[in-house]
Structure formats: structure tokens, C-alpha cells
Write a structure and sequence with these properties.
The chain is an alpha+beta fold. It has helices at about 30-40, 50-55, 60-65, 70, 80-85, 100-110, 130-135; strands spanning about 15-20, 45-50, 90-95, 115-120, 125-130, 145-150, 165, 170, 175-185, 190-205, 220. The protein has seven helices and eleven strands. The N and C termini lie far apart (about 55 Å).
């Protein structure tokens, strides 16, 4: 069957495809790249992530889910929504909707309160504060909709930190971000597992806008409860 994948050297069937690439436009240069992704996506192997899961993690989906009417489709219990919504910062589209028009005005008149984000991951892709207006002016306005405008989060830094990089020791205020992992196994009809699967704490200097670990802006950290 053409939907089954096999390891040529042993003849063993491949049960899981784990994507370490395929998240960036630069990963899809030729038509063959797209055909390869289609072949993997339509195979019987479990995809981590599959296309739907990958797209659900984009900034655009995050922006849409800040709208309570859309969030209610996934969180029907109003009492739970009321607990979730206050934890969201404002996230705007940059399109021709009324909310998008408001965002365009905010981006130009009060950029110091915002970060401009493309549909990318890994750090080094965002545009911050006063850099937003000149950056947008380099683009055609019709291309602005590829970005979302997000209200900046201003957490309290921690100060009792020591960072060692090579031979250098730094004692600077730090900002940390706690990420909670989960795993989900599903098909077109059923969700078989949807469970908590651990956590990751990333920290960066408070003077740095970016925080991506792989891009060299942040570091993996530990949680101290007290």
C-alpha cells in the first residue's frame, strides 16, 4: 500500500514521523519538498505534529482564540472561559477588519506597547516596540496580515540569578517563561489520549527582547518553589 512507509535497509514499517524541520518557509524550496511533506502527511504513520496540529500552534490561531465567541467552541463552559480570558493579553490581526484597522493605528501610534510576530517559532523573528513602524513601512500593506500585533507582557524580573556563559559570569535581572507540555493522539473521529507531559522553563536577561533558546537568546532553567 502506497500509504505505508518502510525503512529501506531493514524493511521495517515506520510508525512515527517526528518533524525536526518543516516549520520554516526555507524548508520548502522546491516542489519536491512539498511532495515529500504530502507523502509523509498522507501516510499511515503517526505524525508529530501532523499538519492540523502544526497549524493550530500558529500566532494567527492564538489571536483568534482570544475572541470569546471563538473560544467558546472549544471551551463551552462559561465558568472556565472566565478564568482563561483574564490571562490573555490583547492580540490583534493586521488585516482590513475593524479590529485590524485599530491594530494598524496602534502599531503606528503606540508601538512601545507591542510586539509584531510572524507565523514563526524559535526566536529571532519578532519585531519589538519602536522598530515596528519602520519595519511595516518596508512591506506592502496587503502583506501586513501575515503578522499579528501582540500586547507586550511585562512580568516582574527575578534578581538572585547567576548565568555562566563560557568563562563569563553574569548577575542580571532575569525574565522567565514556563511552558507546559501535553500530548494528544487522535484521528478524524476520536481523541485517544490528551494528557499533561511535563514542563520547560526558559529564562533570558531582562534587557533582551528575544528569548529563544535554540537561537541563543535564552537558556533552559529550573523552577524553585518557595
Amino acid at each position: 500500500n502506497s500509504k505505508r512507509l518502510f525503512l529501506t535497509s531493514t524493511g521495517e514499517e515506520i510508525s512515527l514521523v517526528y518533524f525536526r524541520a518543516g516549520y520554516s518557509p526555507s524548508d520548502f524550496i522546491t516542489e519536491q519538498d512539498w511532495e515529500n511533506r504530502l507523502m509523509l502527511e498522507t501516510s499511515y504513520a503517526i505524525k508529530a505534529p501532523n499538519l492540523l496540529t502544526q497549524l493550530s500552534g500558529t500566532k494567527k490561531i492564538q489571536q483568534l482564540l482570544t475572541d470569546e465567541s471563538l473560544l467558546s467552541k472549544f471551551v463551552p463552559q462559561r465558568s472556565i472561559r472566565q478564568k482563561l480570558l483574564p490571562t490573555f493579553v490583547k492580540i490583534y490581526p493586521l488585516d482590513d477588519t475593524p479590529l485590524g484597522q485599530e491594530a494598524k493605528k496602534l502599531a503606528m501610534e503606540s508601538p512601545e506597547n507591542f510586539v509584531l510576530k510572524p507565523q514563526r517559532e524559535g526566536g529571532g523573528n519578532n519585531i519589538y516596540k519602536e522598530d515596528i513602524p519602520p519595519f511595516l513601512k518596508t512591506l506592502k500593506e496587503e502583506d501586513w496580515s501575515a503578522y499579528i500585533l501582540m500586547e507586550l507582557i511585562n512580568p516582574m524580573p527575578t534578581s538572585e540569578n547567576i548565568i555562566i556563559r563560557g568563562q563569563d559570569i553574569y548577575k542580571e535581572p532575569m525574565l522567565s517563561e514556563l511552558g507546559i507540555f501535553g500530548y494528544v493522539l487522535f484521528d478524524d473521529s476520536n481523541v485517544y489520549h490528551n494528557e499533561y507531559a511535563g514542563w520547560l522553563l526558559r529564562s533570558k536577561f531582562s534587557s533582551s527582547n528575544e528569548g529563544g533558546v535554540a537561537a541563543g537568546f535564552g537558556c533552559v532553567d529550573s523552577v524553585v518553589l518557595y
